[in-house]
Design brief:
Layout: E1 3-9, E2 15-24, E3 27-37, H1 40-50, H2 56-81, E4 88-101, E5 108-112, H3 115-122, E6 126-128, H4 131-136, H5 146-153, E7 160-165, E8 168-174, E9 183-189, H6 191-202, H7 211-215, H8 220-227, H9 247-254, H10 262-280, E10 288-292, H11 299-308, E11 313-316, H12 327-340, H13 348-351, E12 361-363
Parallel strand pairs: 1-4, 4-6, 7-10, 10-11
Antiparallel strand pairs: 1-2, 2-3, 4-5, 6-12, 7-8, 8-9
Helix pairs in contact: 1-2, 2-3, 6-10, 8-10, 10-11
């Protein structure tokens, strides 16, 4: 039996999720999981650099530091699993995205988390840098996880939507008709803005269970200004990140809405996510929306999604056999297996690439 490790840190920049899995007859078997939280100073430096506040030295140092943390996450999940390192085929590491600019004449996507350190310190072949080949082929380089969703979550005769609520929200529509194309794209902000505002106003890294947002009310005027952002009306393929949706973006809007209580702003940000997801989910009668990502733990967000997406049913990917926290790291374990098998990892109908491509660079043990 081949085992694979997936490493993921998303746009929330809160830490690294590591999973050790095997894939048997299109079934996922989870053997161990582990999470490493970023120290506060590292998270702040990553956030600064993502907003172009930093130097080339900062980039180099953070590439090394996060690479060391990714290696530690991989070693820790191996230790918890009891598997010998020699039984692990490869590690798939997404890295930590700093900037994602897929549009314009010079598209790029930058991740840190030096994969050579991961391979060197674990002694395991590591696959990383998944986005750039898709970008080179004219794609967005994201989202890449829909190919995994298609492989493991599709069901003939049943329309399904996988909604990932990370720092940015993205959806994958898995049509009931097996021959119909899968669609997917980033809908806009999920946790990124709520986390940034919560930290700025309360000193807490996130709003646990959405409790603070639940104290506030939606400010319809502010919500209207937010919804005027051109990204929401763009047609896919499209992807975005914190270079567009960040605290500065929010504060510019708040200049037109002075003296709003902090909880009202938080509640309005939560409503923004719920509304923009609902507006962009393809209409499909009887479809279930399966939620994954950190936002699945936000009880208020889940409640409001059920309202805005009605009559669609909102459920957890746990119903499909995979805990919401572990969908994305599992996807990058699978993408590593695709790469080493010489198989494509992108869906051109999702990213807009000119064709299927084998993704990632391989750093051999």
């Amino acid at each position: 039996m081949k085992a694979w490790i997936g490493l993921m840190s998303g746009t929330s920049m809160d830490g690294i999720d590591a999973i050790l899995v095997s894939f048997e007859r299109q079934q996922i078997r989870v053997h161990a999981t582990h999470t490493i939280d970023y120290p506060d100073d590292i998270r702040q430096r990553l956030s600064n650099l993502s907003q172009n506040r930093g130097t080339p030295d900062d980039f180099g140092e953070l590439d090394h530091t996060t690479g060391s943390l990714f290696a530690l996450a991989a070693s820790s999940v191996i230790e918890k699993s009891g598997f010998p390192a020699t039984s692990i085929a490869a590690i798939g590491s997404h890295g930590q995205t700093l900037r994602h600019q897929p549009d314009g004449s010079t598209p790029f996507s930058i991740q840190v988390g030096d994969p050579t350190l991961i391979a060197e310190r674990t002694g395991i072949t590591t696959v990383a840098d998944f986005r750039r080949r898709d970008l080179a082929a004219g794609g967005q380089g994201a989202p890449l996880v829909p190919a995994f969703h298609k492989a493991f979550f599709s069901a003939v005769g049943e329309d399904r939507c996988i909604l990932n609520l990370g720092g940015i929200a993205n959806i994958t529509h898995l049509p009931a008709n097996d021959g119909a194309p899968v669609t997917g794209f980033d809908t806009g902000p999920a946790n990124a803005l709520m986390d940034a505002w919560c930290l700025d106003q309360t000193g807490r890294a996130y709003d646990k269970d959405g409790a603070w947002a639940d104290e506030g009310i939606v400010d319809q005027s502010l919500l209207g200004d937010m919804l005027s952002e051109a990204y929401f009306s763009r047609q896919p393929p499209k992807s975005t990140g914190t270079e567009r949706f960040n605290l500065e973006w929010l504060k510019v809007l708040l200049n037109r809405h002075p003296d709003l209580p902090g909880a009202d702003v938080q509640r309005t940000l939560l409503e923004l996510t719920a509304v923009t997801v609902a507006q962009q989910i393809p209409p499909a009668k009887g479809m279930t929306v399966f939620v994954c990502g950190g936002g699945a733990k936000n009880k208020v967000l889940m409640r409001e999604l059920q309202r805005t997406c009605s009559p669609l049913r909102i459920a957890s990917t746990a119903e499909l056999g995979l805990d919401p926290q572990w969908v994305e790291p599992t996807a990058f374990a699978w993408l590593a297996s695709q790469t080493l098998s010489g198989k494509s990892g992108n869906l051109p109908e999702v990213t807009g690439a000119s064709g299927e491509r084998i993704l990632g660079a391989v750093y051999y043990a």
